[in-house]
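Memo to structure team: turn this sequence into structure tokens by end of day. - J.P.
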Amino acid sequence: MRPVPSELAARLTRVRERISGAAARAGRRPEQITLVGVSKRQPAEAVAALVAAGLSHCGENFVQEASEKISLVSAQLPVGVSPPRWHFVGRLQRNKAKRAVQLFDVIEAVDRVELAEVLASHAADAGRVLDVLLQVNLSAEPQKGGVEPERIAELALAVTRLPALRLVGLMTVPAANEQPERARPVFARLRELRDGLCRSRPGLTLPELSMGMSADFEIGIEEGATIVRVGSALFGARGGKT
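Reply from structure team:
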């Protein structure tokens, strides 16, 4: 079924209203939260319709899919509408790092020194400084990417020594659960890890906390999220929830 731009715009409005409500409950301003529309397995025309409606950040989980989609989205935007800022939010393999640097503005999935070094090398070759977040595995799920919490200080130090990378924050994906409230301690823990890192490293600032998806982004905002990654609440389910 072809996406209906008016329906997509209405979903975007509803998600923004939920963001505003969560921000108000936390004593925050909604403009402090970046909404990333996660568009995996969604058609380029749906992404372009949401960007035309005002979505300014989009996320993809797979480099190959993004290689095909990003240019299609740009080509379908109305005249005068700027392309979105693209975030990579999946598990990144080292052999896809070069293409990821070419495609994305932000990599939210750095979880090991070897990956950081490869990204930094390709970013340096491209003459750019790449924004990155460290993905932290707080649910101890082996199938998920993410550095173990006890190794985050070591990884952060290594990344800050790579001049082609700009470390801007932390990201996590909690264990799937039908009760979103159960994600709250995970989000609180990520915030505590970020604060501890900054206290232990004078001069280190990590302004971004990427935590919260369609089912639990409001809880993420209440716990300090500055980035929420929302898929199905914007696009509708397609090939599984995001």
